[in-house]
Amino acid sequence: MSENEIRSQIASKEDKITKIEEDASKKEAAAENEVAAEFDAKIAEVETKLTAEESNLAEATSKAEEWVAKKKELTIIVKDLRKEHKGLSKEKTSATKEKLKEISLNKKNQIKPIENEIKALQKELKVLEKAAARGE
């Protein structure tokens, strides 16, 4: 083979490579367009949902933080009120016992002289009954 024939074959092979590269380039562009057509709408839809849900998440996180702070605050308030309630209940019980004890003591102090008077009257009655029994 002569030089020109070899050069001609090389040029022919290079043309084939160029043609293959051009075909591949066209196929790549077509594939990219096909895939883009298939996925771009879905991606856009998901991006819209993602943006909305990220906003919802941010709002929920903010509210959760507010509620956590509110919970801490209310926990302290409730703890203090329970303590106060327990203390007041004990004071009430103690005050009630004290008042009832005082009333009972007053009752005994008022009844005791009357019972003494009744005993004295009963003695007097017995004396009179004995005198009346002797006199009959």
Overview in brief:
By secondary structure, this protein is mostly helical. Helices cover 98% and strands 0% of the residues. The chain has one helix and no strands.
Task: Describe what this molecule looks like in 3D.
The protein has 136 residues and is mainly alpha-helical. 98% of the residues lie in helices and 0% in strands. It contains one helix and no strands. It has one helix at 3-135. The longest helix is centred in the middle third of the chain and has 133 residues, at 3-135. The protein is rod-shaped and about 185 Å long.
Key structural traits:
mainly alpha; single chain; 98% helix; 1 helix; 0% strand; 136 residues
Q: Which outline best applies?
A: rod-shaped
Number of strands: 0
Biggest β-sheet description: none
Structural class: mainly alpha
Sheet-strand content, in percent, reads under 5%
Chain-averaged pLDDT: 94
Poorly predicted regions: none
Q: Compute the separation of the termini in Å.
A: 183 Å
| Helix amount | over 70%
Number of helices: 1
Question: SSE order, as H and E?
Answer: H
Query: Rounded to an integer, what's the Rg over CA atoms?
Result: 55 Å
